[in-house]
């Protein structure tokens, strides 16, 4: 087992220098043009960047290095260059447009006390100006160019297992992003956990469209093949969204063995891949297709496997899993040799935090198992009393093990609360995930997020259940494009459910929107006994997502209350309407709906 990522890449460069480490697929008209990087070349470029970092970044070497790149191989070499220099890296999206992305990166810059920024030459001037405008006069902006300089000046860094390898800024689905401190030991432990869970072999080929600055895309699909001396094939998320078929073509062309996506990616691919595109594809090489980062829907797995069974896709390849940045990545995973596990539970008892088999005469909900613990100890704990719960009871998921990160950067109080949890009977050192779930026969079932649970008239409702029911009720309602939350009235003694839902483009004319909103209210009344829910219909792309595809319900609640949503049509209960600061008025003649933004 390697001790650090640097050791893994250096071993690959020595043992198989001409093997492809990375292939990046660029859009070239309707085709995809590959850019390739061997282990020998990856090692050379990483040494060059490390040398430049040591020479030109003269400040405190303990300050992290912020990586601002488009999703290309330049990002990968810069990330490894930080490892080769013994510097702490921060993967982040390039702030190439105003709005949320710029605000997010600006927040990271301030929170992390960044010492240097790495980027491409064409972005250096703009980023340097941004740094100066932000008052970061002591942050150097570097754009190392490959001018053939001799890399013999490089020397291996002296790092310890508990040194911080990189900061993984959490997605912020329920709060402000925080920098998770991942040590070299954490990364090594989680890579081994992934190896044993996925049964990856030396030389494994993975393929992905996930963002390189997100934990699943970075650790699972980019760093794991390096750990195993394999090859990672990449494309940008935008390339996938434009033509989901490209993901399948990547698997076919490069004989990809492992891939990953949130649930919405599988649904999108199954829905938008035509019969003509699927014809001739061979997906038999795919052993593991991880499904995680958001609730896994049984219907999505069934649809995807049935849709591409004729192309050789094995049902066992769909691999539900559970993980989070605070545990480096993977926390639990299924069995690669067996179909995934489904559990039909009593919906009423689920509201009472119990996982009990469904009865034929009562409403049910089908949960997908996320497998057994992968290198971590898993406890289900009552979040209020901190009592460990028995099998079949729903509580907060707590983790303990070598993959659990050191804590949050520069946030000692949050670190103590989240990473130093103690059970009522005195067991210490647990990570509080903030996720709800339960264990049944050793299988972990994740049911939702504590902060997003809807407590309505004494009932505990899961927002994703309501969102799915709404989107299943008609073709005009965009899958994955909903956010459900509650708001309190001005007296503070009642909560009101609000549904924000995207409408598919060209599906409904303006005169149909009132009827569509009324139909949503009917679904909520019949399925969830919510007769007075407020409904807000918006354009595709209006519902905010994290980099991993999680719905940012807390953010959507704030935008709604601030009147910051551009509304196509809304039906608000009077107490809810009174809470909105600046209601976005419905246009008398709304413009045609635009194409989806993601």
Automatic annotation (TrEMBL):
This is Fatty acyl-AMP ligase. Residues 452-569 form the AMP-binding enzyme C-terminal domain. PROSITE patterns: AMP_BINDING. It comes from the Bacteria. Keywords: Fatty acid metabolism, Ligase, Lipid metabolism. InterPro entries: AMP-bd_C, AMP-bd_C_sf, AMP-binding_CS, AMP-dep_synth/lig_dom, ANL_N_sf, FAAL/FAAC. SUPFAM superfamilies: Acetyl-CoA synthetase-like (SSF56801). Belongs to the ATP-dependent AMP-binding enzyme family. CDD domains: FAAL (cd05931). Residues 11-409 form the AMP-dependent synthetase/ligase domain. GO terms for molecular function: ligase activity. The keyword Cell division does not apply.
